[in-house]
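step=predict obj=Ubiquitin carboxyl-terminal hydrolase MINDY n=108
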Amino acid sequence: QVSPALRTPRLPVWLCSLWGRHSVLFGTDSRLLSDWKSERIFHLYFYSGQQEQTRTAHLTIDTHSHHWEEAQRGGPCSPGKSRPALEMAIRTKWAGATVSWNGTEPFF
């Protein structure tokens, strides 16, 4: 029998398959499951279990930023540059969101 907590998670968790590798994207704020207002700026963590990842990546997601603000910062997601697969996966839930890797070099 499946535990009720597995059917209704207490924290947001997404299982990902990027480039044929399985990984997990998760948050530590339970409000992301029930309060849409918490989806303005929030933090997610990414773990792939791959050898090249030495620690869990801490990501900051901003769902109300604008593409021209990102272009001014000259970040890795500036127009004309390719975006990491993980960022594209995140944008399937939060279209147009910007993703800050907080000093970690994007590896997916």
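step=describe
The mean pLDDT is 83.
step=end
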